[in-house]
Amino acid sequence: MLIAYCTGLICICTGLLVFATVFTVKNYWMLRAMSPSLPGKHDEVPPVRADQPKRGLRYDSAPDARTGADATEWTGPVTPYTPADRR
Fold first, then answer.
1. CB-based contacts of 45: which residues, under 8 Å, 6+ apart?
2. What is the pLDDT of residues 25-64, one digit of tens each?
3. Which of 14, 38, 52, 63 has the greatest number of beta carbons closer than 10 A?
4. Phi, psi (5° rounding) for residue 69?
5. What is the pTM of this model?
C-alpha cells in the first residue's frame, strides 16, 4: 500500500514539474518574441572609429602615461544629495 502511495505521489509531482517547466519555457519564448531584441555578443558590432572613445573604459584619477589620464582632479564644489526618505 505504501509503495502504491509513493508511486502515485511521485507521478503527480513529476507531472506538475513537467507542466511548470513547459509553462515557464513558453512564457520565456513569448516574452522574448515580444521584447525588442538587444545585440548579443555574437551579433555584428559596428567598427569603432579611432577618435571615438571606448565604452566601459574607466580611468583612475592618478596621472598615468599608459592610459593618457589627466593629472588634474576636480576641486570644485560638491553638493551632497540625500534622498527624502533617508535621514
1. 39
2. 999 999 888 877 666 666 665 666 666 666 665 555 555 5
3. 63
4. -65, 145
5. 0.39
Is-contact 54 47, C-beta < 8 A?
A: no
SS3 per-residue string spanning 13-69:
HHHHHHHHHHHHHHHHHHHHHHCCCCCCCCCCCCCCCCCCCCCCCCCCCCCECCCCE
* Residues 6 or more apart in contact with residue 60 via CB below 8 angstroms: 67, 69
Contact 59, 69 (CB under 8 A): yes
Quick one: CA dihedral 17, 21, 24, 27, positive or negative? negative
Question: What grid cell was written down for 71?
Answer: 593629472
Report the distance separating Cα 63 and Cα 70, nearest Å: 6
- Taking the C-alpha atoms of residue 62 and residue 58, their distance in angstroms, rounded to an integer, is 12
